[in-house]
Every structure is written in structure tokens, then in C-alpha cells.
């Protein structure tokens, strides 16, 4: 049904004709296959550079970026596309946001112990500063996470709160996260890491658009590759990032003031020169899917059906590690991302299992003792994942 969009990657990853097993790519959550249209998009970027040379910036900032912003805004029901900042990675955007806080005053940050490596590492470094205090709410048990996080959010005097829409280590969706954000204290800036949610889970940010910063990128479920990330900015944001670049004053290059000014749009969080090949790729995928009626809702439904077939096969296989007891979950029907994570109890066991799966043509990834198996629309409609358990 959807495999037609991914012929190039599927063909390139196919097993040799004499291989015992076909290739089954289940690291979709790590490096998603790219649709074929991205290949032509990369050539389009080269052609535009050749045709316009230095004037290509007018095309990129005048047409391409606004088109991308509108596509993202439509996907997430954001009211102001011009308040969607872009950068090569989300870490750059989040650190730019953090840099807006006064370094001479206390900075208290609320988060969880389940955030991605970049943010977790950055917080560890920031904790070395005398004015920074980090509170990490335990992500488990998931049944009480929302209540515990919300209570702490209102109990403490936090300048910044940060939480994942979908936890990268487990695929579990943070329960009631948008509701918590909608009722946040006025004094607290709230960031939602949507990296494993964007273009996987239907997400409506309309009710919280003016209360949160939402970050995500094209590398995962959009399948447009690395190098293109974004952050939505709430209305009336007046933060002045200390980490700022020349793109932030593109509109004022001819009339530079003595004081550093900031625009009331995405340029407030802009950095400096970047490679916009990824922008072309991401836009090409969005436009093709829009033309063909491929929505996030349809993608999510397709993946949920694939996950259900996997679970049925797993339940009948009685595998010693890949089973319900080891599957980390909270609400598989209504609150889970597009990959399953199994706690193999030790890093050695997860490593051995990953190697066994590779020998059977199944590509997956792991994080220490956790083995992750992902699902995507380039898996066949009749794929029952028996190859995983043979």
C-alpha cells in the first residue's frame, strides 16, 4: 500500500538473492527509510543553487521555508506558521531557548529521567553551574507519572519544564501531557520534545500553541533524513536568546541598531548558515503525502495494525525475551509510539538477541539492556513478523 513510496531504500536494503532470510528493517524509529521523492529533492536543491547562486537565499527564505512552516502548522494545528523556527537539530533550538534565561539568576528546570541523551547530557553540564537546579521526575510507574509531574510543576518555582511526548527509550506516550501544559504556571516556559511523536501520532496543538515550545524534526517518522528540525514558539514570546546568529537579524542587515533586536517571528530563535538540502527533502515528502492524501492519522492506524499483528505472533511464539512481561508499555491501544521496547534484563542479553535477529535478517537497535523494534508504513500489509521469532 505504502511501499511504493520507498522503492529505492527497499531495493537498496534487500537481502542478496541467495540469502536465507529477506531483510526486515525494524529500526524505523532510529533511521526511517526515505521516500523516493527525496532523491529528486536533493538534486533540486543543487539545481536551485546553480541557477540562483547567492540569490538562492531569497528563494529559500521567501518560498521554501514558509512552505515548510505551513506544512508543519497544518500537521500540528498550529495557528501561526511564521512562529515555527528551524535549525539543523533540536538541541540547537533548545539550548538557544535556555540561553535566554538570565545567568545571574536562579534557573530551575523540571524534567523527567527519561529524556534523550542530548538534553540529559546538557542538563548534567548545566548542573555544574551554581545557579542551575534540575529536578527529574521518575518516568515510572507510568500510571502515576502525569499526577507526579503536574504536582511538582505547581509546587516548585520552575523557570523551565521539559518533557517528551513519546519517551525515546520505551515508546510510551507521556499521559495527559498536553493537559498538563495547558494548565502550567504562567511563570514557567514549557517545552515538549515531539521527536518520536511528530508524523507518527496524530497531534493537535491548537489548544496549547500559545503556551508551549514544541520541538521535532524530519529524521524520524517523516522519513526525510537528518538536518531539519523545528520549534514552535508561543505567542507574545519576548525571550532574548544569548545564543543568536546573523539569521536572527536578516530583516535588519541594512539598518543595524546598537542594541541587539529580536523579531516577533521565528527569527527570534534563528541561528546562522545551514545546509538546506534537508529542507527540500522534508518539503518534498510533505507535499507528496498531501497530494496523495497520506495523513498522520492513516499512518498511525497502519502502524497500529502492524503492531497488533506483531503482538499476536509474539504471544503464540512464547519467546524467552520478546514477550509481554518484558515489553515496556502503559497503554498500547491509545498511548504508544511506533516502536516496542523489550527489557532484556542485561546489556549482554540484548546484544546477543540483536545479533541473533541480524542473522535472521531483522535489523533493530538497542539501548543498553533495552531492545527496540520499530514499525513503519513501508512494512507490508501482510507482514506478521514471524521472522523475528523463528
Automatic annotation (TrEMBL):
Q: Record's InterPro entries?
A: PyrdxlP-dep_Trfase, PyrdxlP-dep_Trfase_major, PyrdxlP-dep_Trfase_small
Can you tell which superkingdom this protein's organism belongs to? Answer: Bacteria
Name the UniProt record assigns to this protein:
Selenocysteine lyase
What is the scientific name of the source organism?
A: Microbulbifer aggregans
Amino acid at each position: 500500500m505504502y511501499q511504493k513510496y520507498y522503492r529505492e531504500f527497499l531495493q537498496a536494503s534487500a537481502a542478496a538473492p541467495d540469502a536465507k532470510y529477506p531483510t526486515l528493517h525494524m529500526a524505523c524509529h532510529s533511521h526511517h527509510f526515505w521516500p523516493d521523492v527525496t532523491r529528486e529533492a536533493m538534486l533540486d536543491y543543487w539545481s536551485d543553487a546553480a541557477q540562483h547562486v547567492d540569490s538562492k537565499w531569497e528563494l529559500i527564505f521567501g518560498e521554501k521555508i514558509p512552505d515548510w512552516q505551513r506544512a508543519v502548522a497544518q500537521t500540528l494545528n498550529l495557528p501561526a506558521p511564521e512562529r515555527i523556527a528551524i535549525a539543523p537539530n533540536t538541541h540547537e533550538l533548545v539550548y538557544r531557548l535556555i540561553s535566554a534565561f538570565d545567568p545571574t539568576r536562579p534557573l530551575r528546570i523540571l524534567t523527567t529521567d527519561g529524556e534523550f541523551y542530548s538534553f540529559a547530557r546538557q542538563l548534567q553540564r548545566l548542573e555544574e553551574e551554581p545557579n542551575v537546579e534540575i529536578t527529574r521526575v521518575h518516568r515510572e510507574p507510568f500510571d502515576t507519572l502525569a499526577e507526579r509531574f503536574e504536582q511538582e510543576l505547581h509546587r516548585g518555582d520552575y523557570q523551565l519544564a521539559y518533557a517528551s511526548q513519546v519517551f525515546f527509550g520505551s515508546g510510551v506516550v507521556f499521559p495527559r501531557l498536553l493537559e498538563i501544559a495547558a494548565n502550567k504556571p504562567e511563570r514557567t516556559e514549557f517545552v515538549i520534545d515531539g521527536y518520536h511523536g511528530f508524523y507518527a501520532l496524530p497531534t493537535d496543538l491548537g489548544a496549547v500553541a500559545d503556551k508551549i515550545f514544541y520541538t521535532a524534526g524530519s529524521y524520524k517518522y517523516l522519513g526525510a533524513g537528518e538536518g531539519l528540525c523545528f520549534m514552535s514558539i508561543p505567542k507574545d514570546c519576548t525571550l532574548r536568546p544569548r545564543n543568536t546568529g546573523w539569521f536572527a537579524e536578516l530583516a535588519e542587515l541594512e539598518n543595524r541598531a546598537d542594541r541587539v533586536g529580536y523579531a516577533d517571528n521565528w527569527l527570534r530563535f534563528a541561528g546562522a548558515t545551514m545546509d538546506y538540502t534537508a529542507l527540500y527533502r522534508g518539503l518534498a515528502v510533505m507535499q507528496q503525502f498531501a497530494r496523495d492524501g497520506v495523513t498522520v492519522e492513516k499512518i498511525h492506524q497502519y502502524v497500529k495494525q502492524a503492531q497488533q499483528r506483531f503482538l499476536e505472533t509474539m504471544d503464540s511464539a512464547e519467546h524467552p525475551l520478546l514477550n509481554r512481561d518484558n515489553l515496556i508499555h502503559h497503554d498500547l491501544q491509545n498511548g504508544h509510539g511506533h516502536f516496542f521496547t523489550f527489557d532484556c534484563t542485561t546489556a549482554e542479553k540484548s546484544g546477543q538477541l540483536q545479533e541473533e535477529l541480524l542473522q535472521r535478517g531483522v535489523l533493530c537497535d538497542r539501548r543498553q539492556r533495552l531492545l527496540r523494534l520499530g514499525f513503519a508504513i513501508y512494512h507490508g500489509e501482510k507482514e506478521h513478523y514471524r521472522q523475528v521469532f523463528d
